[in-house]
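Subgroup meeting minutes
Present: P.N., E.W., G.H.
Scribe: E.W.

1. P.N. recapped why we're keeping a running log of single-chain structure predictions: easier to compare across weeks, and new members can see raw inputs and outputs side by side.
2. G.H. added today's entry (127 aa).
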Amino acid sequence: MTENRIQPRFATTTSDAGVVTVHCAGDLDLATTSRLRDALLSPFRGGASAVVADLTETTYCDSTVYSVLVESYREALAHDVPYAIAAARTAVVRHLAILGLDRLLPLHPGIAEAHAVVAGTDARQVS
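Output recorded in log:
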């Protein structure tokens, strides 16, 4: 990465219904993979009723990030916990499509759509 790197930021919020949203912003790469993995996998161990990975403010992802997204999706399936990814930026969505992960992962264009899906209401899926 260059000096123009946008520093990564992670924040986790939990709704009254137990839906955990993990906000991931900035440039995500190998240097942030362990923090991202901890942020995305911890809710499953903590008894979350649903998990949303919010990548709407993510400006860059490398291949290690996509691996963590697949890992967290598998964790959701193993724990039978609803899971969705909110991603609208081309920097994220385009690479997911190129890798074919947009057909595997529960990808949605925004945070509202992702929350609607994990809550069981209708929302459209990106693809």
